[in-house]
Amino acid sequence: MTTAGCFISLEGIDGSGKSTQARLLAEHLRATGRQVVLTREPGGSPGAEEIRKLLLEGTTDRWSAHTEILLFTAARRDHMERTIEPALDAGKVVICDRFADSTRMYQGLRGDDLRALVDRLHELMIGREPDLTLLIDMVPETGLSRALSRNGGEERFETFGADLQQRMRQGFVDLATTFPERITMIDGNRSVADVATSITATVEAQLDG
Ligand code: ADP
Ligand code: TYD
């Protein structure tokens, strides 16, 4: 690590419980005396939240996959500069609901050459990964029904449907196999409390290590 803090991301398909678990993890770490910044993507800084609106509202064909890669990366760059890096430099734990693995999956799986493009742009403009990524694995049907019952206007990606959710799930599992040092898989098909217990154990091992 080049900075004093610890950078943790949560990943998984829509409705897998990331936001719920990110909040519980932040509460747990704060209760143990750590300074925590809880943030999310797309968004997490004023500029990136503006870009979030452009990305998540409107019809599914509003942007091409290429344009989405640029917009998500632009939002991430602003989020890194304004929120994540200052917090890590100050020794805080940053908990981020989605990060670059989401772009690798949601945009990278939409065409043959796109994953390589995502990785190249990430290297050029972002240049760092989380210290730990918690991948909440979940049956797509459950995730989709949870996500659809919850959302208001931000449904551009969820309207892509169950087939895409299944490909995303497999893509995330493959990513965890490729980066076993960074990514820990968590079984999300359990109660909120049981998932939280697994996450807490994984994070404490990382923070103590
Ligand atoms: P995500 O951020 O991954 O889309 P959320 O944390 O917003 O997922 O959860 C989606 C919905 O499912 C919410 O209504 C939440 O209360 C519910 N939920 C989250 N985790 C569980 C769980 N383990 N069991 C049952 N419902 C859950
Ligand atoms: P989010 O609000 O986390 O949705 P959810 O809580 O349902 O998981 O993210 C909004 C959507 O943005 C989600 O469907 C995934 C998508 N997304 C991408 O397509 N690429 C990205 O790089 C990121 C960060 C999110």
Give an overview of the whole structure:
This protein has 209 residues and is of the alpha/beta class. The chain is 55% helix and 13% strand. The chain is built from eight helices and five strands; from the N terminus they run E-H-E-H-H-E-H-H-E-H-H-E-H. It has helices at residues 18-31, 46-56, 65-89, 100-106, 114-125, 140-150, 162-178, 192-208, and strands at residues 6-11, 36-40, 93-97, 132-137, 183-187. Strands 2-3-1-4-5 form a five-stranded parallel β-sheet, sandwiched between helices. Helix 1 packs across helix 8 and helix 3 (65-89) runs parallel beside helix 5. The longest helix has 25 residues, at 65-89. Residues 14-15, 18-19, 41-42, 56, 72, 97-98, 102-103, 106-107, 147, 157-158 line the site of thymidine-5'-diphosphate (TYD).
Major sheet characteristics:
5 strands, parallel
Query: What is the spatial order of strands in the main beta sheet?
Result: 2-3-1-4-5
The string of secondary-structure elements, in order, is EHEHHEHHEHHEH
In the predicted model, the low-confidence regions spanning at least 5 consecutive residues are none
- Distance between termini? 12 Å
Secondary structure: number of strands: 5
Rg:
16 Å
Named once each, the bound ligands are: adenosine-5'-diphosphate, thymidine-5'-diphosphate
Mean pLDDT: 92
The percentage helix is: 40-55%
Molecular shape: globular
Count every helix, treating DSSP H or I runs of 4 or more residues as helices: 8
Strand content: 5-15%
Secondary-structure-derived class: alpha/beta
